[in-house]
Give the backbone structure.
Amino acid sequence: MNNFIDQALMAPLEVLAGHALAVLPNILAMGILLLGGLLIAWLSSHFVERLLHVIGFDHLCNRLGMTTALLRAGIKTDPSRVIGTSLYWTVILLASMGAVSALNLTPINQVAHSLLAYVPHLVTAGIILLAGYVCSNFASQAILIAAVNAGLPPARLIAICSRWGIQLLAGAMALEQLGIAEHIVVVGFGITWGGLVLATAIAFGLGAKDLAKEFLERRVVRTKATAPDDLRHW
Amino acid sequence: MNDHHTPLAPATEGRLRDIGSVDILVGIPSFNNAGTVGHVVRAVGAGLAKHFPERRAVLVNSDGGSSDDTTAIVARTAVDYQQLLIADRQSVLHRIVTPYHGIPGKGSAFRTIFEIARRLNAKACAVVDADLRSISPEWIEMLLRPMVDEGYDYVAPFYLRHKYDGTITNSLAYPLTRALYGRQIRQPIGGEFGFSGTLAAHYLDQHVWESEVARFGIDIWMTTEAIASGARVCQSFLGAKIHNPKDPAADLSDMLRQVVGSLFASMEQHADVWSTIEGSQPVPLFGFPYEVGVEPVHVDVDGMVSHFRQGLSDLEPLWREILGRRTFEQLADLNQQGRKDCRIPDELWSQIVFDAAAAYHHQVLPREHLLKSLTPLYLGRTASFVLATQGLTSAEAEQTIEQLCLTFERSKSYLLARWKAREYQLVSQEPESRVTLDAGGRHEQLY
């Protein structure tokens, strides 16, 4: 009976305990790395943010027009804070990778290496998304103002459509860069965009054919348009 | 001192060497003005022969690549001195017809004229538009005589205009220039100017030729730069100004952006000059003012009010960033009023303009967006002016403009407070405005 307990129950438990004891330092190391990473991320981001603030980095960015560029993107945060936040998340990402590697398990290591190899794609996709966001905000604002100045009633709708159109394009490009359902994204985007253009063309051709006729006549035949008034602003 | 010369065409360089030096230069910027430029050249030639017969003079046509016969007409148009009873023409009128370099626009054309004036050591210069129909030889005398005989540096034109002609001037350029620089120049963006050779060289030395100044912004820039640089300025009465309608393709929004952008950029450059000035002083006016019937102007008030209301609805987020909180609230209240009662009063308009100038200074928005978003506000103010002056004579309408100018002058402390606010965004969103208008029209700091 004793022999059975030793061989059938204790032996596997001992093996399990041996494995657990072998892995435990790695888990501890992972925890330490994670906690240390969090601490370093917080400290370094705060330190860099304060340092940039003290040396007048925000003022310099303002003079160089970078603050305006951020404003154009709808980011109303100081450039020093943007850098601090970016640093924080970069350190967190690196610490997480290190922590996962500390487990020293082949499958996890492979996953970690795969993740590391994936980072350039992530960065590229992030840049594409950021650029798309900046461009969409700037363009939609410019389109809104131009449409209002031209007296187009659906000015806000046009601006919103332009913003989402650009962001959709950026999103599709980012997903393609990440390799997520590449073909579906490209085909889906193509179909959506093509459908929009076709729908607009049909709507303009059928729904506003008189308007289109008048517009083309005005443009092509160049009949003399009557001015609504003769006020001279100059 | 800027030693870099503005590039000129090789043929022009050759003409300059042939001519050597002149006493007087008259410049005509042009672009497809074949229909009117001949009349302008005849008026200039007759004016120089009649009023400055003993002076060496040159006529410079700075052309923007006209596809019609503009330059050929300038080169061949002759003046019939006998018909004009001019017998003692002593000096030959030289002519230079040249293309200009740089950004296409009136400002770049002027730059070439300034450069030629500097190379020829011209003492007195004048510029006149090529689309003028009402120019007479006397205009040349009125633009040049103050420099030749009286020692002035800058002559601004003084026209007779319909009360609704030149609304950017009446509602914005004149009140703002007067309040800022303390000089009552009635037509700061008139189009025709006289200036000394020294001032032309000063203009050339400024690094503004890649900005709005290179386009429509040149007129207001020349005036503000002349005042701010301490030049002796005066005005000359020229009578009625009749010219071809502006290019229909020239968008109002673009024109407004260029003029206001030039004004605000000058404010940035000369903040130390205008921030210390209070009130305003009259500027000497030469000539013999008289009354003439001016062309009637039909105005579509409803269209302008619609534009303003659309702006109020669609551009609200932008205007909230540009304007002070209280200014925007007063503006928003107008939306609840009837179409005919939708009027922007003088005090509110002055605050809008000053808020926009401060927002430009603090770059709360991309500057081009900021300037373009002002178009509906300007149209709202123009509609208000038209509604307020319907049925008034030109003299009575002028009194209304005078009241607006006085309001701008009284409100200047508001501008200074907004201009100097370090955290502009915070100030514009504070629950109470820093500055308020008291009963006497003065602005007081609350805290």
